Here is the input.
Amino acid sequence: EVQLQAFGGGLVQPGGYLRLSCAASGFSLDYYTITWFRQAPGKEREGIICIQMRGDTVYYTNPVKGRFTVSRDNAKNTVYLQMNSLKPEDTAVYSCAARNYICSGDYWGMNYRGKGTQVTVSS
Here is the structure.
C-alpha cells in the first residue's frame, strides 16, 4: 500500500524550532520530488518549499526563506522540513506530497498526497 505521512508537529513557542518528517511507504522517494504544503485556519493551502530529486531546494513562499530548509534521506525514504525561528503566522497543518517530475507547487498535480500534521506556534 502506498502511503505518505507527515509527522513531528506540535506546540512550540515563537522563536522556537521543529523538524517535520515526511515518510513514504510502498514506493521509493528516489524518483520523486517532495513539496511541503501548509494550510492555516481560514486560508487556502499553499506550497511552501520543495526538494528536487538531486537535493536542490525550491521556495514557493518568501516568508519562510532563511528560516525553513528541506533535506532528504533516500536511504530512510524520508524527507525532512527543518523550521527555525517560528512565528505565530506559521501555525498551520503541514503536509507533504510527492511528484515523479520536477518540483511543483500545485497540490493537485502531485502523484501522492499525505495526511498532515498540526504545527501551532504560540506562547
In short: The chain has a mean pLDDT of 96. The first strand starts at residue 3 and ends at 7. The two ends are 40 Å apart (CA to CA).
